[in-house]
Amino acid sequence: MSLPGGSGFPFPQRPGGGPAAGMSHQEQQYVKAIEGAGESCAFKSCMAAVMGAGLGAMFGVFTSAMRYDTPLSPTAPEISTLPLRQQLKLGFAETGRAALSTGRNFGTVGFLFSGLECGVSALRAKDDMWNGIWAGAFAGGILARKTGPRGAAVGAGGFALFSVGIEWWLRKGEDEKRFAVE
């Protein structure tokens, strides 16, 4: 990942030359190894899993708070008769279960999609919209594999279509740069 004005994360460009100015040969090799590790498919997949799990856990906490004990639910009379401490215990337990479940699902999707996209990109030796589409199709099929062939095909198609929409939206800015009105 290269940053403007720098060689890449986490080592900024040194004054008076390139990123290796003033470094020994061994230090240059360490910098190269760390930057290479940060750009590997395994690192990207693991980071996507961690970030997906964190986002999913926050989403799970939010959705759990939205579905907790409404007056019209069938369990409302049972929960409302419990002491406050017991109600809080049940509420926090449900929130924890929802955060764990949603976090695990988001982390799995992030890990799978990111790894597949990186792998497809490496196999094709291109960085274009098709990498995300193929990765979405593969990930959707893998995630829906337990539903049978038809379900896997629907999952692959749905995830691929979602990837088309996301890729189109993310790459929309490239057209603004190419066809700038001056």
UniProtKB/TrEMBL annotation:
Task: Kindly indicate whether the keyword Transmembrane helix belongs to this entry.
Answer: yes
User: What InterPro entries has UniProt attached to this entry?
Assistant: TIM22 (IPR039175)
Gene Ontology CC annotations of this record: TIM22 mitochondrial import inner membrane insertion complex
- Indicate where this protein resides in the cell: Mitochondrion inner membrane
Task: List the membrane topology term(s).
Answer: Multi-pass membrane protein
Record region (Disordered): 1-25
Keyword Transport attributed: yes
Any Gene Ontology biological process: protein insertion into mitochondrial inner membrane
Supply the Pfam families for this chain. Answer: Tim17
Query: Which UniProt keyword terms apply here?
Result: Membrane, Mitochondrion, Mitochondrion inner membrane, Protein transport, Translocation, Transmembrane, Transmembrane helix, Transport
Q: Which GO terms describe its molecular function?
A: mitochondrion targeting sequence binding; protein transmembrane transporter activity
Name the family the entry cites: Belongs to the Tim17/Tim22/Tim23 family.
**So what does this one do?**
Essential core component of the TIM22 complex, a complex that mediates the import and insertion of multi-pass transmembrane proteins into the mitochondrial inner membrane. In the TIM22 complex, it constitutes the voltage-activated and signal-gated channel. Forms a twin-pore translocase that uses the membrane potential as external driving force in 2 voltage-dependent steps.
Subunit info here reads: Component of the TIM22 complex.
Q: What is this protein called?
A: Mitochondrial import inner membrane translocase subunit TIM22
Tell me what organism the protein belongs to: Eremomyces bilateralis CBS 781.70
